[in-house]
Design goal:
Layout: E1 6-8, E2 16-20, E3 23-29, E4 36-41, E5 49-52, E6 58-59, E7 62-68, E8 76-81, E9 84-86, E10 93-94, E11 110-111, E12 134-137, H1 139-143, H2 156-161, H3 163-169, E13 173-176, E14 180-181, E15 185-189, E16 201-205, E17 208-214, E18 223-227, H4 237-250, E19 254-261, H5 267-281, E20 285-290, H6 295-299, E21 308-312, E22 335-338, H7 340-351, H8 357-364, E23 372-375, H9 385-388, H10 424-442, E24 447-451, H11 482-500, E25 523-526, E26 541-547, E27 560-566, E28 572-575, E29 583-590, E30 596-599, E31 604-609, E32 613-621
Parallel strand pairs: 12-13, 12-24, 13-19, 19-20, 20-21, 21-22, 22-23, 23-24
Antiparallel strand pairs: 1-7, 2-3, 3-7, 4-5, 4-8, 6-7, 8-9, 8-11, 10-11, 14-18, 15-17, 16-17, 25-26, 26-27, 27-32, 28-31, 29-32, 30-31
Length: about 650
């Protein structure tokens, strides 16, 4: 051994395997005091050669050594301990020779990546929470379907091909479901009576029959320092991921990632992982999952000061920051929470439950100085938006668990028919309900999160837990129906409207007060009579008035808009608040055109809104408008 390799001691840091000026540095954790070392593959050792760690290179459970004078950058490796082979938990690259869903008897070999990527002055974008719209997607499922229209289906390169669509939609950040390296193939006992399908294939181990499943979602421990290589179209997943990040940044779109950490992953390790992805891959943010997450420590790390760090509210901490004053000196809010209360309560309101108007008043203006609030009505862990309005019950039979998996409480309503239907009235109602849901998300304070495909009604056929479905159930179907095209156009309109009205994405909480003496509060609530909302348990309707001067860059931008929300199953009359003399109301958009408007002198003063409908009004300057122009369905480009 010593004749082939010049083995000397080395420092235990950095962990893993990397080239240094003196040769190849190797460091690994070995749990037991047995023979352990590196199994090295190169041109001279195609079957691999074992190189044990020297005893003098051990500190605690950490072993290290230096292969002095060794510089073969095409080498690959595994670690061994006794007869066991295992991957380097700090690996930065893998030998890309396995297809997605293939199982191998031995671990995939690790590699040392080259650090010669040309970033072309790329850097993280640091878009504030209040200016962001998140778009949650699965790298493989986003473009894998034959209707996606991309060449590199199901890959990082496929996302790059979809950048024109993402820009047109108006999102500011893609949020990737687990895209770090993990083994998507796992085995479990066959359930009694389980049918073999495309999802499950029979595996026999000894006398025990197992099933091979695909963990499509990937919420498990993995190799946290490299991108998932079966999501790459090329052999080089590292550079393909970086190409994706750079291309998205060049188009003003951030890249964020979900990471799942089981309890045994230490806080120090989590910090190390996130810092690596920010510095090496220019990632803009993370959605962290697990228990006991060190969120305060992460948020206070200087390197992550402008990195968005999301978690569930239960993993959050109390933030006491003040970002008022000079905009140039305000602190970047790098901490955010997923607002589960919004997700469930807005679902209840959508289907017409009682006692929801008070919750709507609270949730539509929820915002905090010190941390971002992320709102959604559908995510990966539950019904998609289209299924939320098409199914009363989950339909997870294909998962092979007798429909016992997944959440039983979805707060959904099928609009009268369970699942697929051709009835035009049912389809029209479902489209309207999806539009209403998008309005809840995009017209509220906080940061909207859209689950990819929901913007045009992609369905999972009622499966609310498709963690093992690597097939069209989870893949985005891009061949849009007429209803899908209608919903997509409406979603784009909402996103554009939100971007043009800063009051909808304020960095400071709205107060419901006229604290700047404009004559109107920043936000106010209304009912059949202006300024008098009906908040009783049986109420399902609310009017919301925004005075846009509070969010405007210039105080002379004196305009208003009004959102009328009627989730009741009958018509409801809203009394529009009286505007200043130079202003008049004009309808902008609605989820149902059957609005009946009662006119005052120059503009609507009362509106009769159809069942389960949202309507948005803006103001026009009547000094420049003809007073006899009263087209009830007219739109205005003023907003």
């Amino acid at each position: 051994m010593q004749k082939t390799f010049n083995v000397t001691t080395s420092s235990i840091y950095p962990p893993g395997v990397c080239f240094v000026p003196e040769g190849l540095h190797v460091s690994a954790v070995c749990e037991e005091k047995t023979d352990c070392g590196i199994l090295l593959y190169d041109k001279k050792h195609k079957e691999g050669v074992k190189i044990p760690f020297p005893e003098e290179g051990r500190t605690g459970k950490v072993h290290s050594m230096l292969l002095k004078g060794y510089y073969d950058r095409n080498c690959s490796y595994l670690f061994y301990q006794g007869e066991e082979l295992f991957q380097d938990s700090y690996a930065r690259a893998l030998v890309n020779e396995r297809k997605y869903g293939e199982s191998k008897e031995t671990p995939v070999r690790c590699k040392v990546p080259a650090h010669d990527f040309n970033w072309e002055n790329d850097r993280t974008l640091s878009i504030p929470f209040e200016e962001s719209i998140f778009y949650l997607l699965h790298v493989r499922g986003f473009t894998k379907h034959r209707s996606s229209g991309v060449h590199a289906k199901g890959t990082y390169a496929g996302i790059v091909e979809k950048i024109p669509y993402l820009k047109e939609l108006g999102i500011t950040a893609v949020l990737l479901m687990p895209s770090y390296e993990f083994d998507e193939v796992f085995h479990s006992d066959r359930l009694p009576g389980q049918e073999t399908s495309a999802v499950f294939s029979p595996v026999v181990l000894g006398e025990k029959e197992l099933t091979q499943r695909v963990n499509y979602w990937g919420y498990q421990e993995g190799l946290y320092f490299l991108p998932k290589y079966t999501y790459a179209a090329s052999k080089d997943a590292v550079n393909e991921f970086k190409d994706m990040v750079k291309a998205l940044h060049q188009n003003g779109i951030e890249v964020m990632m979900q990471f799942y950490f089981p309890p045994h992953i230490s806080s120090v390790r989590i910090m190390e992982i996130l810092k690596y992805w920010v510095s090496e891959y220019h990632v803009d943010g993370f959605w962290l999952m697990g228990v006991g997450l060190p969120m305060r420590m992460l948020c206070e790390e200087p390197l992550l000061a402008e990195t968005k760090l999301l978690c569930d509210r239960g993993q959050s901490f109390s933030v006491e920051k003040h970002i008022g004053g000079d905009k140039r000196t305000r602190t970047f809010r790098n901490h955010g929470v997923l607002n589960d209360a919004f997700l469930y309560d807005m679902r209840k309101l959508l289907k017409g439950d009682t006692d929801m108007i008070g919750r709507l008043i609270s949730l539509c203006k929820e915002n905090e100085e010190g941390r971002g609030i992320v709102n959604s009505i559908a995510r990966q862990d539950g019904f998609r938006l289209a299924d939320l309005v098409s199914y009363d019950n989950k339909h997870n039979e294909a998962n092979g668990e007798f429909n016992q998996d997944g959440n039983d409480y979805n707060y959904s309503w099928n609009c009268g028919v369970e699942g697929r239907t051709r009835k035009k009235n049912i389809l029209a109602l479902r489209t309207k309900q999806m539009k209403n849901a998008m309005a809840f998300v995009l017209l509220s304070q906080g940061t909207p999160l859209i689950y990819s495909g929901d913007e045009f009604g992609n369905s999972q056929e009622g499966n609310n837990n498709p963690y093992c479905q690597d097939n069209p159930v989870c893949w985005i179907k891009w061949n849009l129906s007429r209803q899908g095209e209608e919903l997509l156009a409406y979603t784009k309109e909402l996103i554009h409207f939100r971007a043009k009205n800063p009051i909808l994405h304020s960095e400071m909480p709205l107060r419901g007060m006229d604290y700047r003496s404009f004559g109107y509060p920043d936000i106010s609530f209304h009912g059949k009579d202006a300024w008098r909302p009906e908040t009783g348990s049986n109420s399902r309707s609310l009017g919301i008035l925004y005075c846009c001067r509070y969010g405007a860059l210039e105080e002379e931008e004196n305009h208003f808009f009004y959102i009328g929300i009627n989730m009741y199953w009958d018509f409801y009359t809203f009394g529009l608040p009286q505007m200043p003399k130079e202003k008049a109301w004009v309808r902008l958009f609605t989820t149902d055109e059957q609005i009946v408007e009662e006119y005052g002198e120059d503009a609507p003063c009362n509106i009769l809104v159809p069942p389960r409908t949202i309507v948005v009004y803006g103001t026009k300057d009547i000094q420049t408008e003809k007073k006899n122009s009263r087209s009830p369905g007219a739109r205005s480009g003023q907003q």
